[in-house]
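Friendly challenge for the regulars: who can give me the structure tokens for this chain first? No prize, just bragging rights.
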Amino acid sequence: MNFLKIKRQNTIFFLYWFLLAYIIAALVWWFIALNQQNRYMSETKLLELRPDDYRLSEKQQLIYADKKRKTAQYLGEGITFLLLILTGAVFVFRAVRWQFKQSIELQNFMMAITHELKTPIAITRLNLETLQKHKLSGEQQQRLIINTLQEANRLNDLCNNLLLASQIEAGGYKFTEESLNLSELVSASAHDFITRFPLRNILISVPPVIHYSGDRLLLQMAINNLLDNAIKYSSKEKKIWISVIQEDEKIKLVVKDEGKGITDSEKEKVFNKFYRIGNQHTKGSRGTGLGLYVTKRIVQQHKADITVTNNTPQGSIFEISLTQKNE
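First reply, four minutes later:
Bragging rights claimed.
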């Protein structure tokens, strides 16, 4: 399927560049033809002059000046048309290429989102059917219930990212600012992930109280997305750190992992919408490519910055830099 799409895209681009080359060639031919006609007309006018005409020199100068003026006119018009054609061609080419890219990304996103939606639903249904049809011990029931809640939380996070991304794109989300304890918010999110993923080693380093004014729901989603990203792209035996550091009016929220890491050329791209699509390192990982995109938009809503750097010896460090507002 992808091969046919690439072949179709290459065919369209070939026809596009062929037609563009034909138009430019026609424009050059038009200039040459007009210039030859101008030269022929000038030579004809010169031959028609009488040698004994006392104004011969003056008339010759007028013919030469008219020839030069028309040549400059044709050249100016040709260059103008060429620039317009090239500008339009570049614009159309970039628009078509962007449309093809968006189409492929959207198709891949729909495949990913279908899998992301079906998996927790299927697991939840299987767990409930198991509880309904079989007599299980209290420990087994508790394990199934915890697993079901994990999948429900995963589905809830996915829906929140989808809804928020849609609202942000449409400009329909209403930012709500409130005074909150950022330490408490980070700790609650981290402990929630510890409960959901008991086999993961998540380390927390957060001061008791750090006050900040922002949107509670958005900040919680940003923290959850960074933790979820760290869990997705690092193996189970690796550690994950989340910390909050206050330096004067600056507040740094840091999430570190020991995963595969991110190359320098990809560090900016990871915040693009659907970026994970096509990335060889992420094809085996679940996700839709919306988490970091939504996180970046949330950070921008708070007039803050988010960066990603290399962890030592392996992994990534995501850091959100917030500015504490004076009350």
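Strands lie at 178-181, 201-205, 211-214, 239-247, 250-257, 305-310, 316-323. The first strand starts at residue 178 and ends at 181. Your move, everyone else.
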